[in-house]
Amino acid sequence: MIAYVLRRLMQSVLVMLAVALIAFSMFRFIGDPVNSMLPENASVEDRQVLREQLGLDQPVTTQFAKFVTGAVQGEFGVSYRNKRAVSEMIAERLPATLELVLAAAVFALLLGVPMGIYAALHPKGFLANTLNVASLIGISVPTFVTGILLILIFSVWLNWLPSFGRGQTVDIGWWSTGFLTVSGLKSLILPAVMLGLFQVTLIMRLVRAEMMEVLRSDFVRFARARGLSNRAVHFGHALGNTLMPVITIVGLQLGSMIAFAIITETVFQWPGMGLLFIQAVSFADIPVMSAYLVLVALVFVAINMIVDLLYFAIDPRLSVRA
């Protein structure tokens, strides 16, 4: 077990170094930040001075070494656009994104898992077929279209929920939360539904497919032959064996929701990291973009590590193989 964890940690370090190199290299070609920061009539001397201040006149290897060293310490330099430390800007935006993803994940799990179980246990029922059709529609409709429809129905027509912003927040140390205010919770509903709706359909279809396959397994037949009730067979034996692939997908999708919250945050003007990234792209703000990519990669690596460790808790046989 310890050897396995150490191997995974080494692999994670190599992955993060590769991501850092990709981020640093890729964003070198999106534009010259000096052109965005200075007026068109700026002199050559002014441009050279700014390049020296930003460290852009140094060799690429030196710049990359400084980037990695700073990233390890949580420092990503100064934003070209806002003239502020990138770490401070991320710390301000991170709570909004994490609360949005948390609400969307809870929404997806609370709906997706029960719907998938019901569809697996009643595959020919009218409600199960209705859920399957609805899941196909949910997967097919683009996310931004879902967001626009939600705004049109609940904000414009019914005027029940706000269409943009985060509402009032409460500061708890460096963390700002909207969970403790009515306007914050109301502002969270539509973005969370938009971000989590695709995950609901994905989780439902995955749980349904996996559970139907498990119900056809030999050990389920033996459990029924022993005279166990349907409840004991379904939830004591089948559901536990269904969770392995579900945990993998849910873990990866959790990272995807953080990465692709950009669309949701743009539609609802949610003040999170995704909206910060979009603004940085339009200004060629390389430190912000690089920090965002590295942070998202770190989330994926951490989630993969947690998922792998959860496998050992769910299936003890893996401890022997490791």
Automatic annotation (TrEMBL):
Report if keyword Cell membrane is assigned. Answer: yes
Cellular compartments per GO CC: plasma membrane
The protein's UniProt keywords, in alphabetical order, are: Cell membrane, Membrane, Transmembrane, Transmembrane helix, Transport
Start and end of every ABC transmembrane type-1 domain? 94-311
Q: Which Gene3D superfamilies match?
A: MetI-like
Topology in the lipid bilayer: Multi-pass membrane protein
A family per Pfam: BPD_transp_1_N
Spans through the membrane: 12-31, 100-121, 133-158, 188-207, 246-270, 290-314
* InterPro entries with a match to the protein in the record: BPD_transp_1_N, MetI-like, MetI-like_sf
- One Gene Ontology biological process: transmembrane transport
Membrane among the record's keywords?
yes
Top-rank taxon: Bacteria
Q: Name where it's found.
A: Cell membrane
Indicate the family of this protein.
Belongs to the binding-protein-dependent transport system permease family.
Protein's name according to its UniProt entry: Peptide/nickel transport system permease protein
Q: Which organism is it from?
A: Marinovum algicola
